[in-house]
Write a structure and sequence with these properties.
globular; binds FE2/S2 (inorganic) cluster; alpha+beta
Length: 110
Amino acid sequence: MKVCFVSADSDNVRKVEGKAGDRLLDLAQASGQPLEGTCEGQMACSTCHVIIDADDFAKLPPAVEEEEDMLDLAAGATRYSRLACQIWLSDVFETLTVRIPSEAKNMQGR
Ligand code: FES
């Protein structure tokens, strides 16, 4: 399967290969997406905030309450927002399309 990362301004689109069980945050970071993931999945930051394509969003298991609470703190959150540290790829996706919010910054602040 593929994950399609789209920049906030849609100027950059990057497709990467993934497999069931891969964590979205790990794939994003490995492909150079500007997501910090400061707390490494402990649901204590929201620096891994992404916006999922609406059709793909419907295929994801719902966010747990702690994730919803962290998303309330994410800049630019939408109804399709999720935390990339809480999403694992599965066979329900041929391509998962993910938008990186404009507020995202990587470790170098780019
Ligand atoms: S890495 Fe901190 S909430 Fe996802």
